[in-house]
């Protein structure tokens, strides 16, 4: 069949676009379009090439796995190609896959499938010789990958030696290195705060970490790995099925996903897809579908593979988490600490089954860095329970009239001045608790579950109480003249029964632990853990208040550095805050339970400054610092003549050199543990 010019031009344009996006995704780790958009382009090209097979070129993106070798890494040929997977986008696609499998096998019987969540990370092959880790490689183009052993070695889930025995002499294990969502969110939050570049999603963060030449970068990233198959195997036997092989890999100390199962037929695969889909957002890691694999290796061999993918497996994809839409405007929300958060108002778009019309832009710094303008086409991502976010702008689609977004000079709620401290990523309303928005947010935090835990007092109700003028401060909540069954029952949607339940809940919350109370106060940077440390260290509210302008005393608390100490000092030096505390613990009858503190805490490090550097085997650096402070010592970030001791671990660098030059006393990990009395 002759190929119409139009189709030829279309295929060429698609190939160019796909190549360009492939490069951005695989090499630069900076995708410009959501995966769903990429998949649409790819499928368009596949369809064209299916219709006109003459259009297929050897270098068409459909003919390869994707990815270019990276300069700077040694090449690793894969003895058994690392294939990618064909995709299914519907139950019908899975049924068609199962039909093809049975036709090829000429089988009337149902086929057993090993089913697994499809992890969204980076495919990696681990090579073990005589049970010893020797090399880790990326997929690369499927035939040749890049040697990333130096980075993969830093991943705690990857054993450097297989456990037990009975493993083949050469065993190449394949799986996905990924970043759990909690670690990803924490890492991006820290980067955002420091005004640094954030990663678009956990997969890019993973790829970006593994593509580093310096292994110290990967070592700091919260990476882990699940294995899901084998490549080259020689000098030994593996079981006859995929599922039993994975069990064996688990016994050898490799991490296997606990969600894996064996099911029967297309129905089994579809049921599993639906069951995992329902729990998708409860998982600790991001998945983008499920993989169904013929379980029996003999059948897998019989089926073989086509150039890009095995015939014995299919990836069934969930609806995408990321989609394109247009920014209609940007509003500013005022948070508890006055931080102004830009929120994009979007042309509503369906992202993974949910209509999204607002997405956060996090802060002014990030908005400026991404150069977001009204009218821009942007990529919007929704993951788990977190608020949808704008991840990137498609600059190529920008119209001439796209209007830049400006930081308002005045708070949109209280009209006070907005300020942006030098070097801070965040702009804030300067009015503190005089700003109604901040007051509402502070009250919502005060009553929340991990703080005072007042049942039945939700966000909407707090807003009503403030709008009606019943409550201005946390102390007002406990003032029976303001909050009582009559005043509450007068509010919208509040019946007498719920009003009296709420009064009882407020009453019950009067008795509270010191740590919860401190957390409830909403002091900047004082989260649950820091509140607990403060409580355990000072024992009582009075003791904390009376030490609150002594920075050294505050910094002796584990987790408390100069910045947090300054926030604590500022909070307790504010007259208004002390008044509210007096009212709470005085007339309003809140009883803050003190903590008994052991008075035999040895202050044997009093007056001594420590510097900690390098990697310790038995604890993190933060733990080491906390232990030093617990014993009354000080911790500094740099070595000087005043440094008492330098504690050094593996890979200690310039600080160790400097300490040697200055003649500072050195402690290796054993000596440090000795000093702590732990040996
Ligand atoms: C992922 N990404 O989770 C495979 N995968 O098997 C699982 N990928 C795969 N299996 C053969 N669970 C090629 C790729």
Short description:
The chain has 679 residues and is α+β, with helices and mostly antiparallel strands.
Helices, strands, pairings?
Blueprint: H1 5-27, H2 35-51, E1 75-77, E2 87-88, H3 91-105, E3 112-119, E4 122-129, E5 132-138, E6 144-146, H4 149-152, E7 170-178, H5 181-193, H6 202-210, H7 215-220, E8 224-234, H8 242-251, E9 261-264, H9 265-279, E10 287-294, H10 297-303, E11 313-317, E12 322-334, E13 340-351, E14 354-360, H11 364-370, E15 373-374, E16 377-381, E17 389-393, E18 403-404, E19 418-419, E20 428-429, H12 436-447, H13 459-467, H14 474-477, H15 485-489, H16 496-508, E21 511-513, H17 514-520, H18 528-538, H19 541-547, H20 551-555, H21 562-573, H22 575-585, E22 591-593, E23 609-613, H23 621-630, E24 634-635, E25 645-648, H24 654-662, E26 665-667, H25 669-675
Parallel strand pairs: 2-11, 21-22, 23-24, 23-25, 25-26
Antiparallel strand pairs: 1-6, 3-9, 3-10, 4-5, 4-7, 7-8, 10-11, 12-13, 12-16, 13-14, 15-18, 16-17, 19-20
Helix pairs in contact: 1-2, 3-9, 12-13, 17-18
The protein binds 5-amino-3-(furan-2-yl)-1H-1,2,4-triazole-1-carboxamide.
């Amino acid at each position: 069949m002759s190929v119409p010019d139009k189709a030829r031009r279309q295929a060429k344009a698609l190939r160019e676009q796909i190549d360009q996006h492939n490069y951005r995704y695989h090499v630069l780790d900076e995708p410009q379009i959501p995966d769903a958009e990429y998949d649409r382009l790819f499928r368009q090209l596949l369809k064209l090439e299916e219709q006109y097979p003459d259009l297929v070129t050897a270098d068409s993106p459909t003919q390869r796995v994707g990815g270019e070798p990276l300069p700077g890494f040694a090449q690793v040929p894969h003895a058994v190609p690392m294939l990618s997977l064909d995709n299914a986008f519907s139950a019908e696609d899975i049924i068609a896959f199962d039909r093809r499998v049975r036709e090829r096998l000429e089988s009337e019987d149902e086929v057993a499938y090993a089913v697994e969540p499809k992890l969204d990370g980076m495919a990696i092959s681990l090579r073990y010789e005589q049970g010893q880790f020797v090399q880790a490689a990326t997929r690369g183009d499927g035939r040749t990958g890049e040697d990333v052993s130096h980075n993969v070695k830093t991943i705690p889930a990857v054993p450097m030696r297989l456990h037990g025995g009975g493993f083949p002499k050469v065993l190449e294990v394949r799986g996905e290195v990924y970043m759990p969502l909690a670690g990803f969110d924490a890492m991006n939050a820290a980067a955002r705060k420091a005004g640094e570049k954030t990663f678009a999603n956990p997969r890019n963060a993973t790829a970006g970490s593994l593509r580093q030449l310096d292994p110290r970068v990967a070592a700091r990233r919260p990476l882990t790995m699940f294995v899901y198959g084998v490549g080259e195997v020689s000098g030994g036997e593996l079981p006859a099925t995929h599922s039993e092989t994975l069990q064996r890999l688990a016994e050898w100390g490799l991490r296997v996903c606990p969600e894996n199962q064996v099911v029967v037929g297309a129905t089994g695969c579809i049921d599993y897809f639906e069951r995992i889909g329902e729990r998708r957002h409860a998982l600790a890691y991001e998945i983008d579908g499920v993989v169904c694999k013929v379980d029996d290796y003999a059948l897998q061999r019989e089926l073989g593979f086509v150039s890009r993918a095995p015939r014995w497996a299919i990836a069934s994809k969930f609806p995408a988490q990321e989609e394109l839409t247009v920014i209609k405007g940007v509003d500013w929300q005022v948070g508890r600490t006055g931080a102004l958060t830009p929120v994009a108002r979007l042309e509503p778009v369906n992202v993974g089954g949910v209509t999204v019309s607002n997405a956060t832009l996090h802060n002014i710094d990030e908005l400026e860095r991404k150069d977001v303008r009204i009218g821009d086409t942007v990529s919007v991502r929704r993951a788990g329970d977190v608020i949808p976010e704008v991840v990137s702008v498609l600059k190529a689609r920008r119209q001439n009239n796209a209007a830049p977004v400006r930081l308002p000079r005045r708070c949109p709620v209280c009209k006070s001045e907005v300020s942006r401290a030098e070097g801070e990523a965040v702009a804030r309303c300067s009015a503190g608790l005089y700003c109604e928005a901040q007051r509402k947010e502070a009250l919502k935090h005060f009553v929340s579950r991990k703080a005072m835990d007042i049942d039945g007092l939700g966000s909407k109700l707090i807003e009503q109480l403030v709008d009606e003028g019943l409550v201005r401060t946390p102390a007002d909540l406990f003032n029976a003249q303001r909050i009582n069954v009559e005043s509450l029952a007068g509010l919208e949607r509040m019946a007498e029964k719920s009003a009296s339940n709420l009064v009882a809940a407020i009453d019950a919350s009067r008795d509270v632990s010191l740590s919860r109370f401190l957390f409830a106060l909403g002091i900047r940077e004082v989260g649950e853990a820091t509140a607990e440390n403060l409580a355990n260290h000072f024992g009582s509210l009075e003791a904390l208040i009376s030490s609150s302008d002594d920075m050294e005393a505050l910094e002796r608390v584990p987790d408390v550095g100069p910045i947090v100490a300054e926030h604590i000092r500022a909070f307790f030096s504010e007259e208004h805050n002390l008044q509210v505390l007096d009212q709470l613990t005085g007339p309003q009858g809140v009883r803050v339970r003190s903590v008994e503190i052991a008075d035999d805490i040895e202050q044997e490090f009093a007056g001594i400054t420590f510097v900690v550097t390098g990697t310790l085997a038995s604890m993190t650096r933060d733990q080491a610092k906390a232990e030093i402070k617990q014993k009354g010592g000080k911790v500094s970030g740099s070595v000087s003549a005043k440094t008492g001791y330098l504690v050094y671990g593996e890979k200690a660098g310039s600080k160790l050199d400097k300490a040697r030059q200055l003649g500072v006393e050195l402690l290796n990990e054993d000596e440090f543990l000795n000093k702590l009395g732990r040996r």
